[in-house]
Please model this.
Amino acid sequence: MSIQKGDFIKVSYTGKNDDHIFDTTDEEVAKANNIYNEKGKYGGDIVIVGAGHTVAGLDEDFEGKEVGYKGTVTLPPEKAFGVRNPELIETIPITRFEDRPQVGMPVQIDGRPGIVIRVIGRMAQVDFNRFLAGQTVTYEYEIKEKIEDTESKVKGLLGLYIGKEFSIRIDDGTVFVDIELELTFNQRWLISKKQIANEIINNTDIKEVIYQEKYNKDVLAPKMTEESKTD
Model:
């Protein structure tokens, strides 16, 4: 049966802008193109078709395909990262920056991510447009499998948003998710956990999501560095 909106699928992909690779689920490709993230999750993403887990054009292209499909899709800006808005280029005094701004430097101003594109005296121009806004991009992708079981769906959504594996237990419509101590300080987790729970409940047979933190002596004990062990 062909892929339909609402299906959970595992997909691998590589995104290109001209000949420049800017994103990939392939670890070796990431390393070869200097975009490897040691904390990243490789091997493919589990997404819900039609839920906006990828750029719009790629999401739409999944529909009607079969498991095992391999193909390429080229997307205009409005189906990828959006059109470029010149009003999102702002001139800001350098006193607003933590470090002296330099061209190409990523910055955060009032919580908004941007890139410094020009520095003139004591002023800097910052582009707050979305990454690759206004550009045509191409994705090569493969639909690896259709996900049917609830546990894999839940783990897939957690991994998609947070980029790591979680230990979970499902009991009578409730999923218990073990939360590592380090995640309690993770901004990405704090922002995403409600959205993750919402998507789990609305797209699976899970009725309740319980995030649980566990503490014991091993977790609470301060970690010893190699230097402290030899002192």
